[in-house]
Structure formats: structure tokens, C-alpha cells
Amino acid sequence: MADGILFEERGIPAAAVITDAFRRTADAMARAQGLEGYPYVAIPHPISSLSPEELRARAEQALPEVVRLLQEEGAR
Amino acid sequence: MSRGLRTEPTREAAREAREAIEYCYEQGWTDGLPVVPPAEEFVEEFLEQVDRDPEEVVFDQPHLGRKCTVRLAAANAVMAGCRPEHFPVVLAMLEAVRDLPVSRGLFQSTTGQAVLVVVNGPVRQVLGFNSTDNVFSPGNRSNATVGRALRLVVMNAFGIRPHAFDQSTQGTPAKYSFCIAENEEESPWEPLHVERGFARQESTVTVAWARGTMPVEQRDSKHPEHILLNIADSMSYGGGYFPSPRGHGSIVVMGPEHAQLIAQAGWSKQQVREFLWEHFGRRAGELRRLAKEGGLDPQLPDEAFVRFAHAPEAITLIVAGARNAGVSTVCPTFVWQTVTRRIPIRRT
Fold first, then answer.
1. Mind listing the pLDDT tens digit for each residue in B60-114?
2. Whose C-alpha in A48, B2, B81, B305 is 20 to 30 A from the C-alpha of B235?
3. What gap in Å lies between CA B182 and CA B189, rounded to an integer?
4. Cβ of B164 and A28 within 8 Å?
């Protein structure tokens, strides 16, 4: 989250991706960075036990949302 | 120690104190236990103990936009229940923690790391730190409050609290307070601070990331190998192992009975560390059975021994506890580096 917000502040479009177990921390970080409500993509938890193929499938599922966030930020 | 409580407080004073404690709860300043209300005059008493600018930043968390100044450190030491004389120890501890690897991140880790604090030198007697029986237990003000001051700084100065920035999956009770003193008097070897180049008459604080305490029993043998193999086996438990090259280490808090038996057999501290390092690890086949073979060469035979640490220096060896049983403790960590700092004691 912090990385995404720091990129945006420098004019570089970013899309933060988290797993849904980290929503509370993500929201707290957005508040700490002064950007409450900064949007992110939340994919299902867990991921560290997935096979490479399963992980690729998660990435593909998340892709349209990532693209949408990148375009939204870019339009700002 | 300076002022003690001279008279029994009146009921009215006790009532007011309780209200002030409740106020601190409402502000979200506590670790769950009551804190001493950090009135400005108390904070000033602490600041008088050190020759430092109160606004100087001691330790920061830039990614959170938070800083701990000398004044904030003093306020949290007051709340933790320290006495003013403890403040130089608290300050040295915070600066040592700042200099640990990943000190701007690991406080938020799902791994729930605590920080073990070890006090050496004459300050142990001057301020009454416990280094003997119950060294990890409740019951001693210096150990309890100095260790607690770190947690309150993390929670209050940095805002790293549960359900927000502290993401510990489970954490550990060691996060309340995790401060011990080395039993230099009953250790057969040079104390930790002397090993690290300080004079015996200097006082120091050493800090290390640690996930908690694991007790080690061996009361039935006086042979160094038997004692040390039990310690090494406890250091090497499968659940503690991360299959990654991140630099596992271990903090061994050896009970004086174990240390003396080993030293009587002629072993130096360095020999102990080397033996532990050689046996700190698991066979490749066991790691495969636990599905922790990440990073292992697939050609490595199952019987091959995989060492978890890169060198004997990854093992920190301390002697603490009572000389009353063959008990030691292992504190697992995956950050082998530790930091020792001198505690500046002002001559008055």
C-alpha cells in the first residue's frame, strides 16, 4: 500500500494488490499516508501455499481490476 | 534507588489515581495492563537522567510517518512503570533496537517477533535486574518495566498496535516484556558484553529479535555433548524453520548448571557455539517430509545435513537463571544479528 501511494505521489500509476486477510492493515496504511479510501485489489487469502499454476490463475482473475485501477489513477 | 513511597496514599489519592489510569485506557495508551499516567512532571524527572535534547529523534518508522523522540521515550517509560533511573537503560535499548536489521518493518510482521533485551554489567546490581531464578518470569520491576517500555513505544510512538499495523498472526506473551540480565557471577565464561569488546565494568544492553522461549531439559547427563545435543535439537525444530536464505540464528540462554558442567569438561564458549552450529539444522529428507525443501538442491541426498545458520556467530550464547537444575532456554529467531550498546551512566 505504502509503495503504491508513494508511486502515485510521484505521478506513476500504481495498483496495490493485497490478500483479503490484510484489509485492515491496508486501510490503516492508507489513512497513515493521508489517502483514506485509496483503492486496492484484494485477492483471496492465502497465496503462499499455492502452486505456480494456481498463483497464475489468481493473477489472471485479478488482472481486469488491476488494469481498471491503473487507468483510474492515470486519469486523475 | 531514589524516592520510595513514604506514606500510604489517602483513599482520595487512590481514587484519583484510578481515574487517571482509566483516562489512559480511554486514550488507547496501554498494552492491556494499567499504565502510570505520564504527567509532565514525571516525564521531566526522567529527562533529567540523560544529557539529551528532549526533541531529538531516537528511532523512527518513516513508512508510517512516526517518530520517537527522547521525550516520547520518557513518557512511555513512565507509563511502563519505570523509575527515572531506568531511563538511560530504556534509551540505550531503543537505540540498539533501531540499529537491528529490519527495525523498520519487522514490528508489523505476521511472525509476531518480540525483542529480547539482555542487560550486562554493574547496572544489574545498581538497578536490581534479575539474572537468576525466574529470569524470564514476572516479579522484578526492572526487568518487567524496561522490557515493557519498548512495547509501549512501539504501540504509542509508532502506532503499531493489534488490529491495524501489528499483523502478528498470533504473537507471543514475550511482546509484553522480554528483558533479562546475564548471570555473570555464575557463568563460567566471559559475559556477553566483554565478548563484544566492552569492559567488564561497563554496563550494556543487547537486543535481538526473538519469537519467544523454548525450554530445554537435560538433567540426566553431565556430558557436554548430551546437553548441547538437546539444545541443538530444540534450536532445529521443523516448525521454526523458514525454507529461505534469510539468516536463521538462535539465542541460547543457558542455565548455569548446564554451563558449568560444560565448562568443567574444558569447553570454551567458542567451542560450544561451534558445536551448536554444526548440529543446528535437519537432514534433507526430514525437510522434504515437512515440505520445507524450498531452496534445497534436488540432487542432495536425504541423509545430507542442512545447516540452518551460516556461521557459529549466528548463535548468541548467554548464561542466565538459577544453578538449581539442568534447564536451558532457546529463543528462536530468523534474524541472527544482535546489537549491543553501552548504557551511559552519569556520575553524580
1. 999 999 999 999 999 999 999 999 999 999 999 999 999 999 999 999 999 999 9
2. A48
3. 11
4. yes
Tell me whether the omega of the peptide bond preceding residue A46 falls within 30 degrees of 0, making it cis: yes
Q: Running DSSP on this structure, what letter comes out for residue A38?
A: -
Chain A, nearest residue to B166 by Cα: A25
Alpha-carbon distance of B257 to B222, in angstroms, equals 9
Q: What is the pLDDT of residue B4?
A: 60
Residues 6+ apart with CB under 8 A from A38: A1, A4, A5, A16, A30
Work out the pLDDT band at B246, boundaries 50, 70, 90.
low
Chain B residue with CA closest to A6: the answer is: B63
Enumerate chain B positions whose Cβ falls within 8 A of a Cβ in A.
Answer: 63-65, 108, 159, 163-165, 167
Query: Is the Cβ of A32 closer than 8 Å to some Cβ of chain B?
Result: yes
Reading phi first (left if > 0) and then psi (alpha if -120 to 50, else beta), residue A24 is in alpha
Identify any residues that bridge with B67 across adjacent strands, giving them in sequence order: B60
How many angstroms separate the CA atoms of B311 and A8, rounded?
42
Residue holding cell 485506557?
B25
Q: Do B167 and A32 touch (CB under 8 A)?
A: no
Tell me the C-alpha to C-alpha distance, in Å, between residue B291 and each of B198, B243, B258, B295, B332. 44, 9, 34, 11, 20
How far, in Å, are A41, B98, B214 from residue B174 at the CA level? 34, 19, 12
pTM over 0.90: yes
HSE, CB side, 13 Å, CA atoms: give it for residue B344: 8
What element of type H or E holds A41? strand A41-43
Give chain A positions within 8 Å (CB) of B165: 25, 28-29, 32
Provide the residue ranges of all domains of chain A, joining segments of one domain with +.
2-75
Residue B281 pLDDT grade (very low, low, confident, very high; cuts 50, 70, 90): very high
- Max Cα–Cα distance, chain A, nearest Å: 37
Name which of A24, A31, A47, A51 to mutate to probe chain B: the one with the most chain B Cβ atoms within 10 A of its Cβ.
A24
Nearest CA in chain B to A21: B167
- Kind and range of the H or E run holding A19: strand A17-19
Q: What is the mean pLDDT of chain B?
A: 95
Among candidates B63, B65, B164 on the partner chain, residue whose Cβ is nearest the Cβ of A25? B164
